[in-house]
Amino acid sequence: MIERVEMKNYKQCVVKSEGPDSASMPPVPISPIKVGHIDDVQELRKTKPKTIPQRFVRDMTERPTLTATLLPPPHTHMPVIDFSKLSKGNNEEVLGEIFSLATACEEWGFFQVINHEIDHNLLESIENLSREFFMLPLEEKQKYPMAPGTVQGYGQAFVFSEDQKLDWCNMFALGLEPQYLRNPNLWPKRPERFSETVEVYSGEIRKLCHSLLTYIALGLDLKGDVFEKMFGVSVQAIRMNYYPPCSRPDLVLGLSPHSDGSALTVLQQAKGGPVGLQILKDNTWVPIQPIPNALVINIGDTIEVLTNGKYRSVEHRAVAHEEKDRLSIVTFFAPSYEVELGPMPEFVDENHPCKYRRYNHGEYSKHYVTNKLQGKKTLDFAKIQTKIAN
Ligand code: OGA
Ligand code: NI
Predict the structure, then answer these.
(1) Whose CA is nearest to atom 6 of ligand 1?
(2) C-alpha gyration radius of the chain
(3) C-alpha neighbours within 13 Å on the C-beta side of residue 35
(4) What is the Å distance from ligand 2's center to 251 Cα?
(5) How far from chain centre, in Å, is Cα 294?
(6) Separation of CA 181 and ligand 1 centre (Å)
(7) pTM score above 0.85
(8) Which tens digits make up the pLDDT trace of 45-94?
(9) I need a surface site. Which of 15, 33, 110, 267 has the fewest CB within 10 A?
(10) What is the DSSP string of 13-79?
(11) CA of 238, nearest ligand number
């Protein structure tokens, strides 16, 4: 008999903070987490362009396939959703696009949205300002440090031990909504207009997430406002990922394989960048060709649980490039931390047994941010343990 008991008791390593953001944001470690020396990859690239410290060199099994296995179309083409057909189309167009959206969610867990009604100048501004931020001197960026074990500020998230492999990436992340997630000390003063642009951009992305969740609900034969009602005051966070060029992209990963702990994730890839995002489709890493001005959306763990696995949060990763740098701006949209989640009754019957237990989303978020990124392992937190007799 094999019994899978993979849940980690994360309470052993974290305690709830007493401060204003208790019950929610990144936990406070009981004892400082020892993460060892973390090279800043941009500085490394500047000062020793040919050096790849051992902590970045992946084990053979983890190394990326760069001439990514190009499956014949349509497998290489992530579905494209025309948002204007959903928002302004005639009946037939709306129904047709809801159907395409439902198919994309079920078969890919990822899609690109075009005509999303967010001003392209705003996309360009957030891109330029993020780039300017990463180009600031290290001392300036380090005024907003991401403390070990937390996920806001500048640095590398998800590092919990001295021997853990590191990603070829610099991150800058901020909690946005609800307001209590905000740590004002981490909002950069430079570049000018950075903070106010983040604010405007996030408002637009939030609206898009609400709309997409409505159409996703309709495509599942649910009431349009079901997720909005269930989620309460949604949690929103932003992360900018900067991937400098790497002399040996075959040895490193830009970002470790993972699924997102959100309900939906919105990814903006800066113009002119190389292909870097890869998603695991039918056991093959498929590179995603960005469409200019489109936004990449993916289903996160929350929707997988709510739909009892009908829609899955698909594993993805980022690879580095030998000559070009790459910038992405990622928004995570999730339910309020107070919400209890579990498969909705509509998706459970005798042919579809309940695969996930009910849990508090705040607890799940904590579990997510206190574990390293490891494919879909984090979701074991919610999986109903299966006993397989042999
Ligand atoms: C993420 C992510 C991919 C990318 O930040 O969760 O999957 O291309 N990013 O930066
Ligand atoms: Ni992701």
Answers:
(1) 260
(2) 20
(3) 22
(4) 20
(5) 17
(6) 21
(7) yes
(8) 999 999 999 999 999 999 998 765 555 555 567 899 999 999 999 999 99
(9) 15
(10) TEE---STTTTTSSPEESS---------HHHHHHH-TT---GGGPPPGGGPPPSS---PPTTTT---
(11) 1
